């Protein structure tokens, strides 16, 4: 039964254990906000990498800082982990930042550096700031994130034996069990004394790669040897796993040399460092203000070479750190538990929906007039680019509603792919393949001034690469899913494969037909009998019936009563096999057809078992009216409707609540230039929010 699923899994796959409860205790209070994507990843035991935010607030100038922050998150995601940038906004610690929150920190002038000691004051005063290495380690440990990527750590300042100026990063490494992946210690510091201090603190220090020489930020060579060396991600992960298992209470520091082709000239940088140090001394710059001053001045004196090296090394660290996190996650899964667990503790894993479908770059042209002139004339219009695709839209909307699905798709590795990944950073894009030599799917929609779609043009060939062989790599995800959604962009053979998996494992599958030409893909064979739900519009429903050999009308009606009547009649023959047919009717709302249970239509499938009853009902729910002048885009309204219904379904809500969540999501989508409105969230589309609306009575009747 789809509702509030609870699965007890074997030890090799169940990793969402005690830390879920621990997370709630620490991270659901007023001081913490955890991004839904990060929380879902932690709950389900996927690898997460923590990222600091002082590199955004104090490490680079705008807009370089914002661009690099986005690229670093994308690098982490591309290499298999979930990025969780940590920062403080208006007195609240954020574990994972929205793109607009990254921009706030990148642009703000009056933000502070937040280390461990600063949290009480910063939070009590409602301030914003970037977390240092020490501050980020503290929060990452509270959030049970074992791997943290940064540029370079602080250390003992030059002449530190006189000033006792020692970075809090070093003491934090001595008392917080988090693995820090960095390019070593900044070369503006005393590297020898820093390594000695780390030894005193009991910190396990190793270099990554072929050399034991400890890196010095944008210099590959410091002249000092690290105590240990790990040659690859697997070795690094094994070392971190042993450290955590021993519960030493201290961190691990892994020094990753700056990429050779980006490493700056040692002589040039060293000269710039000496001059910058003399200038800082002359100006009396000390403490936490010293490092930002030195980095900026060294960049000026090196003609930008140090900044280029800085950007290259942080992205390289993100790549290495993400892969280490993936390798560590595999070790912990193989052990059957995370090393933060109490012995013999059993907690059920949280499964996730899976969405399989297309990604498109959408170009939406909306004419200013209600009628479009044909014959070569230029129609005054508003033209915008956005990101769509039925599968992507469903996954996007579900993610915004807090149900982050695992998304499987394919796109080209071209000028569009980077933009798509950045825009979809709130989604789990771990199942998205990027192919060299292929174009990312592109769709152009022409909409009248009144909001009606008049023409669609598409380059969709890439969707044929969502093959059975590729999707089969994620069989475990499919078998654990409470619901699988698949769209009509997917090849027939892949749809048949998913239906076969569903039949063998009693999985619920929802098919979104996409358009008239693709609607019938599952229905050309017996595959469709394994489906639980379909969500066609009226034209797509007619095409499906025609494929199955059922009589269909030549023309479709235009009056509401007739539209609803013919939709119900066309849904009837399918209900002998399907659990439910959800017919989207555009401005007329939605028709839900299914079996009667306790006096109402139940959306909840009992593991897709077909009921012997021949009693079916239909319920028509009117749409939320949206004035024509407020309609910005119709391409994502139907997808938002279905995603809202699914979100309610996954929460175990009744049919009326599910459908109204969908209608509310659709109304927000219509008012948005984006296919999925940025306004959609689990707070704005919620059961509580539904109470603020006056809903017209739904019409319900028995199907003959």
UniProtKB/TrEMBL annotation:
A Gene Ontology BP annotation from the UniProt entry: nucleoside phosphate metabolic process
SUPFAM superfamilies xref list: Indigoidine synthase A-like, Ribokinase-like
Entry-linked PROSITE patterns: PFKB_KINASES_2
This protein's UniProt keywords: Glycosidase, Hydrolase, Kinase, Lyase, Manganese, Metal-binding, Transferase
Keyword Kinase carried by entry: yes
GO molecular-function term, one example from the UniProt record: pseudouridylate synthase activity
Superkingdom of origin: Eukaryota
Record-annotated Carbohydrate kinase PfkB domain positions: 354-676
The keyword Lyase is annotated on this UniProt entry: yes
CDD domains for this protein: YeiC_kinase_like
Database matches in InterPro entries: Carboh/pur_kinase_PfkB_CS, Indigdn_synthA-like, PfkB_dom, PsuG, Ribokinase-like
Protein name stated in the entry: Carbohydrate kinase PfkB domain-containing protein
Origin species: Anolis carolinensis (Green anole)
Gene this protein is translated from: LOC100556121
């Amino acid at each position: 039964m789809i509702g509030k699923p609870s699965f007890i899994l074997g030890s090799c796959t169940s990793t969402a254990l005690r830390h879920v409860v621990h997370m709630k205790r620490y991270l659901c209070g007023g001081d913490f906000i955890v991004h839904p994507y990060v929380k879902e990843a932690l709950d389900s035991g996927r690898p997460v990498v923590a990222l600091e935010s002082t590199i955004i607030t104090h490490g680079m100038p705008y807009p370089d800082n914002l661009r690099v922050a986005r690229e670093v998150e994308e690098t982490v995601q591309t290499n298999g982990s979930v990025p969780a940038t940590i920062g403080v906004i208006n007195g609240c610690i954020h574990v994972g930042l929205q793109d607009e929150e990254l921009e706030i920190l990148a642009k703000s002038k009056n933000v502070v550096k937040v280390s461990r000691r600063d949290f009480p004051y910063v939070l009590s005063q409602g301030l914003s700031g970037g977390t240092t290495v020490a501050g980020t380690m503290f929060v990452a440990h509270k959030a049970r994130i074992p791997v943290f990527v940064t540029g370079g750590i602080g250390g003992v300042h030059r002449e530190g034996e006189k000033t006792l100026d020692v970075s809090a990063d070093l003491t934090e490494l001595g008392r917080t069990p988090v693995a820090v992946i960095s390019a070593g210690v900044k070369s503006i510091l005393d590297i020898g004394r820093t390594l000695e201090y780390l030894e005193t603190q009991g910190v396990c220090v190793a270099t990554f790669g072929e050399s034991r020489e400890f890196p010095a930020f944008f210099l590959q060579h410091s002249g000092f040897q690290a105590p240990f060396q790990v040659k690859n991600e697997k070795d690094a992960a094994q070392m971190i796993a042993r450290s955590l298992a021993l519960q030493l209470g201290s961190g691990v520091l892994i020094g990753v040399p700056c990429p050779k082709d980006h490493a700056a000239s040692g002589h040039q940088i060293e000269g710039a460092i000496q001059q910058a140090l003399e200038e800082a001394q002359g100006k009396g710059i000390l403490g936490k203000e010293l490092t930002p001053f030195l980095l900026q001045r060294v960049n000026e004196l090196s003609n930008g070479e140090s900044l280029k090296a800085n950007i290259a090394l942080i992205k390289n660290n993100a790549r290495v750190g993400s892969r280490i996190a993936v390798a560590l996650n595999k070790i912990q899964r193989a052990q059957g538990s995370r090393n933060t667990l109490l012995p013999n503790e059993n907690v059920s894993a949280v499964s996730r929906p899976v969405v399989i479908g297309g990604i498109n770059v959408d170009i939406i042209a909306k004419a200013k007039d209600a009628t479009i002139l044909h014959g070569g004339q230029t129609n005054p219009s508003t033209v915008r680019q956005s990101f769509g695709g039925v599968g992507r839209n469903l996954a996007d909307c579900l993610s915004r509603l807090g149900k982050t699905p695992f998304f499987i798709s394919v796109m080209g590795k071209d000028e569009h792919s980077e933009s798509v990944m950045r825009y979809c950073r709130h989604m789990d894009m771990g199942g998205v393949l990027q192919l060299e030599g292929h174009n990312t799917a592109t769709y152009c929609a022409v909409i009248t001034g009144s909001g009606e779609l008049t023409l669609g043009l598409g380059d969709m060939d890439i969707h044929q690469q969502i093959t059975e062989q590729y999707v089969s790599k994620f069989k475990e995800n499919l078998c654990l899913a409470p619901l699988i959604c698949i769209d009509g962009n997917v090849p027939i053979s892949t749809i048949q494969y998913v239906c076969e998996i569903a039949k063998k494992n009693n999985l619920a599958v929802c098919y979104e037909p996409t358009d008239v030409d693709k609607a019938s893909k599952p229905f050309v064979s017996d595959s469709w009998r394994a489906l639980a739900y379909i969500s066609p519009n009226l034209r797509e429903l007619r095409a499906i019936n025609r494929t199955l050999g059922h009589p269909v009308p030549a023309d479709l009606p235009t009056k509401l009563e007739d539209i609803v009547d013919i939709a119900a009649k066309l849904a009837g023959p399918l209900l002998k096999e399907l659990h439910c047919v959800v017919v989207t009717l555009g401005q007329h709302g939605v028709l839900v057809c299914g079996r009667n249970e306790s006096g109402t239509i139940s959306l909840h499938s009992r593991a897709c078992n077909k009921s012997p009853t021949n009693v079916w009902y239909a319920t028509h729910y009117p749409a939320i009216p949206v004035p024509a002048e407020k309609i910005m885009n119709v391409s994502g309204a139907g997808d938002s409707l279905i995603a809202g219904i699914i979100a309610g379904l996954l929460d175990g809500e009744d049919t009326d609540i599910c459908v109204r969540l969908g209608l509310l999501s659709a109304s927000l989508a219509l008012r948005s230039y984006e296919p999925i409105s940025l306004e959609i969230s689990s707070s704005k589309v919620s059961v509580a929010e539904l109470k603020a609306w006056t809903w017209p009575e739904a019409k319900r009747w028995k199907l003959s």
